[in-house]
Amino acid sequence: MQALQQFSHAWRKLFAQFSPEHWSVQQHEQCLEKLLQAYQEPQRAYHQVQHIVECLVLFEKVQSQIEDGFALQLAIFFHDVVYQSRSASNEHDSALLMRQQLAGALPETQLDKIASWILATQQHATTSESDLAYLLDIDLAILGSAAVRFAEYQQQIRQEYIWVDELIYQEKRKQVLRQFYLTQPLYQTRYFQQHYEQQAKNNLLQALG
Q1: Global pTM?
Q2: How far apart are CA 110 and CA 19, in angstroms?
Q3: d(Cα 14, Cα 28) in Å, to the nearest integer?
Q4: For the segment 95-153, what is each residue's pLDDT rounded down to a tens digit?
Q5: CB 3.0-4.6 Å disulfide test: which of 74, 156, 185, 203 passes with 150?
Q6: Using omega within 30 degrees of 0 as the cis cutoff, is the peptide bond preceding 185 cis?
């Protein structure tokens, strides 16, 4: 319940940054309803309200380093709004839904930027764009969380892929985690390198054990 309240509160705080002639209170509330509905779908165990709230908490910590905090928060809210573990187009579909929901509310250039950031969360490639680097690090911060939270995250991901045979899952999962472990550095921004890098590498090494 607390996570739902935090999610809703953070979304409502964003309303003041929209232009009132292009975006009404009613539209804002309807969009919140759509987001909450999406993030509480039954197939989700990790990619749900908790993940978005954790991302928003991290955003608060690095807010002073962000140029376009409004766009970054919108990217956080929408980056996993469409999620099916069998799908290869989640990020594309999430960006599309963001455009549909915010059509007319923001300039096209800003919608384009947010959409491109959402798409970038699929590959997590190195970027020279500072705000995007923060978004990608925020999204991967779970890897550098406390050991208990990391273990819970591992279980949540397994739950989302419950349809995959155990042996195949373990093999594929280790491939993903190994790739993260071998990425030097894992995080692109100084803040996340200083606060999360070592813990992430420890968690990943243990998981690969």
Answers
A1: 0.97
A2: 13
A3: 9
A4: 999 999 999 999 999 999 999 999 999 999 999 999 999 999 999 999 999 999 999 99
A5: 203
A6: yes
Task: Quick: pLDDT tens for 164-174.
Answer: 999 999 999 99
Give the count of beta carbons closer than 10 Å to the beta carbon of residue 106.
22
**Whether the Cβ atoms of residue 3 and residue 50 lie closer than 8 Å to each other:** yes
Q: Taking a C-beta distance cutoff of 8 angstroms, is the pair 114, 75 a contact?
A: yes
pLDDT digits (tens, 9 = 90+) for 187-197: 999 999 999 99
**Complete DSSP assignment for the chain:** -HHHHHHHHHHHHHGGGS-TTT--HHHHHHHHHHHHHHHT-TT-SSTTHHHHHHHHHHHHHHGGG-S-HHHHHHHHHHTTSS--TT-S-HHHHHHHHHHHHHTTTS-HHHHHHHHHHHHHTTT----S-HHHHHHHHHHHGGGGS-HHHHHHHHHHHHHHTTTS-HHHHHHHHHHHHHHHHHSSSS-SSHHHHHHTHHHHHHHHHHHH-
To the nearest 10°, the Cα dihedral for 179, 181, 184, 185? 120
